[in-house]
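Chain X:
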Amino acid sequence: MRDKIINLFIFCRISGLLLSLFFLGGIIYYFRKLKIFSHWRERWRRKWGLSSLSDLFSRSNKQWKKTESLLEEPYQASWKLAVLQAEGIVERTLKQIGFQGNNFSQQIQELQKQGYRHLDILSELHQKKEKILKDKNFSLSLAQAKETVAVYKAFWKEVIDSLG
């Protein structure tokens, strides 16, 4: 009788251990799938300046794909959002590589000090973005939106290429 109780106790311990490992694996799987810890890790890496250029490039590429997919939609609001996102990508990239400024205009001034040229085009595009934000009746054609996003992306590529 005592051997049966000991065997049952050992069986319960092993079963409990296996179930614990199974559920722990499930928790880890869903945490990774939900990207809970990756957000914290990215924030920590950015805070300490450990983000590499390849991380920045891959993250921004994903954002560019989302932005360009907005241009394929038939809605003017999507085109406006694409323009806003394009400037946002460029602004975040500039901040992450060290161009400080409270807004995009200050970053453009910092870029001029560094020797970048033809920044007047970016200033015009920034003004267009400000009009989109301030005037809800601002009209933006698909061609204008595509051109604006293309200019922002070309400038972004120029900045990334100058780093590598």
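Chain Y:
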Amino acid sequence: MILRRLLYFMAGATALSVSAGVIVVALAYGLFALVKPYVGAAGASGVVAAAAALLIGLIGLILANLARPPKPPKRKPDEPESVVDRIVDFVRNRPVTAVGAALVAGLLAVRNPSYLGLALRTFVEGRQPPKKPGR
């Protein structure tokens, strides 16, 4: 049942791809026939190639904009950071220290799991950031 649905899906995707290719070729030939009387056969080929390059560039720009990662939501200044935010900031700001800490935490977890719990609790509780004057 699942294999049959997958095969039908793949056949449908293939049919759509082939029909899109036929449409592109037909449009290219139509453009060629339209501009051939004005610029000749070689010029018409160049116009078709330029139109194809323009289309590919436009599609590339659209896909590149769609692939851009979303911006993280802005936090309010008085909103406390979550544990995940603190960990990500620590790894970004101090990558070598973070790798060393990960290795030490792994060794501690192998030797004595209670040390790992203590280290995690210390990191999670940590220090509160200093309050700004006037608040």
